[in-house]
């Protein structure tokens, strides 16, 4: 997908977008990919970051919002580790609609973006401690 096309799509107002995204990610892909879904979504997120490299922390936030993934903010930065919080209605709605929604796509995207920005190897894990937020831990070598 071309970046200018993505920009236009991200501005398109359509209330079916969240449903379509959840249907694809939390339904169809999990059914098709079975046990491999988490790994494939993680690496798909990394590929999305390669195609849509944002170059800044603010760019990451803008991309998450445009993609309908929720509102992300960095909560702490330490040597070798960053912690990010993903919040918003998208998270609440996905948690209400699915017993255990996957956030591996977002984790892969975040890992690759930070790797491209720091030029250091990264990995990202996440935990959902309640129904309204997801905590991402980005480990930087």
Automatic annotation (TrEMBL):
Xref: Pfam families: DUF2507 (PF10702)
Source superkingdom: Bacteria
InterPro entries in UniProt: DUF2507, NO_sig/Golgi_transp_ligand-bd
Name recorded for this polypeptide: DUF2507 domain-containing protein
Source lineage: Bacteria, Bacillati, Bacillota, Bacilli, Lactobacillales
